[in-house]
Amino acid sequence: MNVLVVSLLAVPLLILTGCGEEALNDKSKTEAPMMLMDEFTSIDELPSVLEEGLTPEEKAELREKILPSGSADELAAEEKFKQLLEEARTGDAKAQNGLGVMYYTGEAISKNGAGQILENDPELAAGWFFRAAEQGYADAQFNLGLMYANGEGVSQDTAKAVELFQNAADQGHVDAQNNLGALYYTGEGVARDVDEAIHWFEKAAAQGNLDAQANLDAIRSMNN
């Protein structure tokens, strides 16, 4: 049986959580032992007193035993969040979209009203996607379209998803083109129009989108 590939997939979160616009707690620095009270080391560094007299190989071995796994990744995520938040507040659409992705995926720390840490925050993510989408940023239009299509962070509204995918597709966004074609084919959120679906699948396939090409192949095989 031929199956139409519809790539209405959740965004790899980009991911979405909710501490408002407050910066993350600073986990990048930790106070050293009392005898080193004037020395602060980042989370991926060892206090110098522990490294005294060690060869580079011995230092590397000690780091592997002591430092928490993934600490460098956590630090990078925190610095990324801070930079994106600063830029997003100035109205930078790309940063707003990036911040939305971090909240959607849970890469950014968020809490609910009771102070509990959330795994991710679709509502806050949708808010940042909306800001960027309003400025015509295609990636944000696509991401917000996915959220409306899936009912994540916003009430499900396929017609709104079609509108957002259309706006992004008109700018050449390949995944939006494929998803727009899929919705035209199924008639969700828009009047069913196979010719229009094929039009958008062809545009996406011409950019190398494999899902769009699979959709075209499935349609053509059903018509043979």
What does this structure look like?
By secondary structure, the protein is mostly helical. The protein has a domain at 157-224: Serine Threonine Protein Phosphatase 5, Tetratricopeptide repeat, CATH 1.25.40. Helices cover 56% and strands 4% of the residues. It is built from 10 helices and 4 strands, in the order ββααααββαααααα. The protein has helices spanning 48-51, 56-66, 71-89, 93-105, 122-134, 138-150, 158-169, 174-186, 194-206, 210-223; strands spanning 29-31, 40-42, 110-111, 117-118. It has a two-stranded antiparallel sheet with strand order 1-2. A two-stranded antiparallel sheet has the order 3-4. A hairpin with an 8-residue loop joins strand 1 (29-31) and strand 2 (40-42). This is Sel1 repeat-containing protein. InterPro entries: Sel1-like, Sel1_AlgK, TPR-like_helical_dom_sf.
Q: What is the CATH domain class of the domain at 157-224?
A: Mainly Alpha
Low-confidence runs:
1-47, 66-71
Question: How many DSSP helices?
Answer: 10
N to C succession of SSEs: EEHHHHEEHHHHHH
Helix/strand/pairing category: mainly alpha
Total number of β-strand segments? 4
Indicate the CATH topology of the domain at 157-224: Serine Threonine Protein Phosphatase 5, Tetratricopeptide repeat
Architecture per CATH nomenclature, i.e. the level-2 architecture of the domain at 157-224: Alpha Horseshoe
Beta-strand content: under 5%
CATH superfamily of the domain at 157-224: Tetratricopeptide repeat domain
Mean pLDDT: 75
Instruction: Give the CA-based shape.
Output: globular
Helix percentage range: 55-70%
Q: How much is the radius of gyration in Å?
A: 23 Å
Separation of termini?
14 Å
Order of adjacent strands in the largest pleated sheet: 1-2
The biggest beta sheet is recorded as: 2 strands, antiparallel
Organism: Nitrosomonas cryotolerans ATCC 49181
Protein name: Sel1 repeat-containing protein
Pfam family, one: Sel1
